[in-house]
Amino acid sequence: MKCKIIYLSLTGNTKRATEKVKEGINKSGHECELLEMRDFTNASEFNGFDLFGFMAPVHAFGVPTIFTRFLKTIPRINEKYAFIGATGATNFGSFFSNINKILIEKRFTSIAKLSVYAPQTYTPLNSPGNEKYIYKEPELQKAYNFGINIFNEYNEIVLKKSKNPPKFTQIIGTSLFSMIANNDTSLRMLLGTIKINKETCTKCKICLDNCAWNAIEIVSKTSFPKRIKNKCGGCCACINLCPEGALWTSSTKGKERYYEPSYKGYTKRS
Ligand SMILES: Cc1cc2nc3c(=O)[nH]c(=O)nc-3n(C[C@H](O)[C@H](O)[C@H](O)COP(=O)(O)O)c2cc1C
Ligand code: SF4
Ligand code: SF4
């Protein structure tokens, strides 16, 4: 059988978890394709698969707006089956229930969920030298085991109809917060004004290539990058991924950025 996982990853955590799920699926004798949300082209991406995975990081107890927006634009197609995966640092809030609501509108039936605890990439919350910023091996193993088992779940639920699909409840107390906080404006206000150190910036454009909100432009006169404020989602990816540490805000100053040496996933986009 064949699975396709469509994922969003701003600093590589979800990408790694997704790759582990794929490894597990392959180990169980099934096929799996990965597709970064930003590489999605059209509805034909949904042809020829038995199962879909939707995976993203948790942002402000919910789904990153850019991923919600993407899910809302996918076409309504015939009955399809899906699992929902998230990587988060502490609290997954209404992530699963919010994605599930959109998937129901799109005629997907969600058959399983995966939550992977990953290092914190919201830089204002980080503090220097904390070992929690290392991705824990058991969490990646959890993603792998999920991949190994997912087609057994599929067989039980879809083919034998012997199990009820899981319910996706929100954690009480975070749902209200998600309603007011899980949007671009709130997150960029929390982050503050992004400043650039022109002495260390090498004009490499890694920040621009990795901004999922397309909120970075190059100033033609100087060739330095500049944030387009009203487009920014406050995700910190540019701050975390800049190899020179040239980007900062008053809330990230002195905080450890999340740069995972084993993550070489800089994505060059045209
Ligand atoms: C803007 C922002 C908000 C976040 N909010 C939450 C949160 O509410 N709950 C949580 O568990 N993790 C939160 N995190 C942590 C990320 O979900 C976690 O680091 C995730 O693994 C990042 O995945 P990525 O590298 O694929 O983007 C937040 C991270 C960012 C950047
Ligand atoms: S990633 Fe850093 S060094 Fe590269 S262009 Fe952006 S700010 Fe400059
Ligand atoms: S400009 Fe804003 S949205 Fe883009 S990577 Fe930086 S913080 Fe994220």
Please explain how this structure is put together.
The longest helix has 23 residues, at 137-159. The model has no long low-confidence stretch (mean pLDDT 89). The chain has helices at 13-27, 65-73, 95-105, 137-159, 174-181, 184-191, 206-210, 237-241; strands at 2-7, 31-36, 51-57, 80-88, 108-117, 195-196, 216-218, 225-227, 247-248. A hairpin with a 6-residue loop joins strand 7 and strand 8. Helix 1 crosses helix 4. The chain is an alpha/beta fold and 270 residues long. It is elongated. One iron/sulfur cluster (SF4) binds at residues 196, 201-207, 225, 242, 244, 246-247. One iron/sulfur cluster binds at residues 196, 201-207, 225, 242, 244, 246-247.
Task: List its salient traits.
270 residues; Alpha-Beta Plaits; binds iron/sulfur cluster; five-stranded parallel sheet; Rossmann fold; binds flavin mononucleotide; 8 helices
Tally of individual helices: 8
Sheet of most strands: 5 strands, parallel
Q: Which structural category fits the helices and strands?
A: alpha/beta
Arithmetic mean pLDDT = 89
Bound molecules: flavin mononucleotide, iron/sulfur cluster
How many runs of DSSP E, i.e. beta strands? 9
